[in-house]
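Memo subject: From amino acid sequence to C-alpha cells
Keywords: amino acid chain, backbone geometry, C-alpha cells, three-dimensional fold.
Body of memo: The sequence and its C-alpha cells, given next.
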Amino acid sequence: MKQKLILGFFLSVIIFPIFGQDYIKVIKPVVNIRFNPSTSANIVAQAENDNVFELKNEKNGWYEITMFSGEYRYIHKSVCEKTNYNLVLTDNVQLKKTVFKALGNIEDKAQSDADKKYPTDFSRNIDYFRLLCDKYKLEIMNKYKFQPPTYSKLILEGVKKNW
C-alpha cells in the first residue's frame, strides 16, 4: 500500500506536470482574461494573439488558466485553441535579467496601487494586488515576448543567480 502511495505521489507531482501539462494559445488579436467564467465578470487583463497559458480546467465554454499570482482566471474557448508548448527560456542572459528585474518592479507598483485603493482593507488589498500582478506581469511578458508559462522558470533562475 505504501509503495502505491509513493508511486502515485511521484506520478502526480513529478511526471504529470512535466509531460502531461495542457496549454492553450490565444488565436485572436486581443482577448479578455476574466475573474470568473462569465462575460459579465471583471476583466483581469488582456492577452494577445499567440499568448500561451497553462490550462487547468474547462468550465461551460471557458478555459480556466493559471496566472502569475497563482490564481485561476478565465478565457472564453471561442478565442483560444489547445496547443502543444515546449517550456523553454531564451539563452539571452541579459534579456532574462531585464525581464526578471522588470517583473520585480511591477510587483512594487502593484503593491503601491493596491495600497492606494484599499489602504485599510487587507482582504481587498491582497485580492487587488493579485489582480494587478496578473495584469502588469502579462504586460511585461508581452513587451519582451516571453510566454506566460516561462514565468516560474525565469523567476527560479533569477533568484538562483541572484539577479
Residues 93-160 form one domain. Confidence is low (pLDDT under 50) at residues 1-18. The first strand starts at residue 22 and ends at 26.
